[in-house]
């Protein structure tokens, strides 16, 4: 029998879920305020030892939902048996890498922790070495996992956790047989967590056959959004959100705005950036004492503050009539939060506006929001350069009108007249000079914005897009590819997703055209097609990742500056374990805010 649980109104704290203190500490360091609904339901069930079926999509926090209990159990067991402690199966190599990075970020407090991603398309050598060294968590695509089982390099006899991530995707990709084979090699004494966005009969068959009295976790969604709220979305990479936002706000009419972000840190960071751009912005989050929060809300009410940047928790129950616009700067984890968030506007029978930023990877969430709310979220068209410029001119003209209409200026007029006569300069030139002082610029012209992203980066099936790491000296492994060097690397906390996103989106090529990515400490090697159109390279030459120009150029084989190979140079492309060595060295991939997936 399967019992079905749904979320209720009271969200527990992470500290109430029963996680191991070392795991809890790492989660708190991530800045997560409260568990997402899928986490709140799944973590206690998994910690109690039950098998779980989680119906959840990307962006709901499902990775932490399965990673945290597995790591808690590992911390408890403190074991280094022969063979991995947990195996996570993912449909694609990108997801395998992301999941491995997430594990690393939640395991920062565990001594000698190691996780190994294994996927097709990568040379066997490093994977074999990683497995020999004994990875506690293996994250792999089914095909490659089977290959290692056949070779005897991976043994699942002492496996305690088997996790299937995006199970429906794996079945769609034809991995059913491989998955069954993997189940048959895992002993009975294991816990299974299966996550899937949908529940086709093929998944029912697997869960019925291999899961033991599973608890099914489904997140109930409240689906009523106010009809008086116009909802629009804008597809944008994370790094362009702020630019897009400021452009949108230049032309939107609004009184008060509430802007939602994912973490407490992000509320402060965004409020700061908005203040630097001249907005009256303030942050509220769960760390700010209640009284101070109330003061901030009062300031929004009275117009001393126009933009409130908030987390879900801090904005709970907020009722300020003046809010005419809700911006989902980060897409919420679930439909229920979305409905709750946009309900902060359109109060007291007024109409409201809701704008949602969606990164290419989060496209699926947009679909589920539309399905659950049974409302279409319209695409937002970013104002054109002309529109922006015209709006600026109009606003500036209005400022002049207002001053002329309301201010006694005869004293200043005399000064200007004096200037005009003594310097013999036309009054319009003097006015323009003064305008440039006021504007701190000599133009009102807007700059063009990089094109919004239309499609989502494709994902490779098992087998990957390459045949291993690129050779040095511009010679990629694939003879149709050339290796390029980017001037950003792990020191900038670069993640593979950011490289794919930046190159695909800015260069206007598909992610399938991008070959192997090898992130080194101070640079990154990436394989791109030999016959790449020069216009693509030109576009890429202006590309920045995390505010740094990538300075793309064919790799000459010489490092930009000598660097010593150290433990922390290990990374997914190497196929070597990500290992937390508490005695020294940096840890790889400890930030999961970057895993918000398109942060570049
Ligand atoms: P996932 O659905 O696992 O792909 O997670 C989506 C994003 O949400 C990732 O960037 C996570 O780091 C982030 N995330 C996961 N859990 C939480 C949480 N409880 N609070 C805030 N962000 C979270």
Strand and helix map with partners:
Layout: E1 3-5, H1 21-30, H2 37-47, E2 52-55, H3 62-77, E3 86-89, H4 93-106, E4 113-118, H5 124-133, E5 137-140, H6 142-151, E6 161-164, H7 167-172, H8 176-185, E7 191-196, H9 201-210, E8 215-218, E9 229-235, H10 241-251, E10 256-260, H11 264-276, E11 281-284, H12 290-302, E12 307-310, E13 323-328, H13 335-342, E14 352-358, H14 363-373, E15 378-379, H15 385-406, H16 410-423, H17 427-439, E16 481-486, H18 496-507, E17 517-519, E18 524-529, H19 534-541, E19 544-545, E20 548-549, E21 553-554, E22 578-580
Helix pairs in contact: 1-3, 2-3, 3-4, 6-8, 18-19
Bound molecules: adenosine monophosphate.
Distance between the ends: 45 Å
Number of helices: 19
- Specify the structural class: alpha/beta
Strand content: 15-25%
Mean pLDDT: 81
- State the total count of DSSP E strands: 22
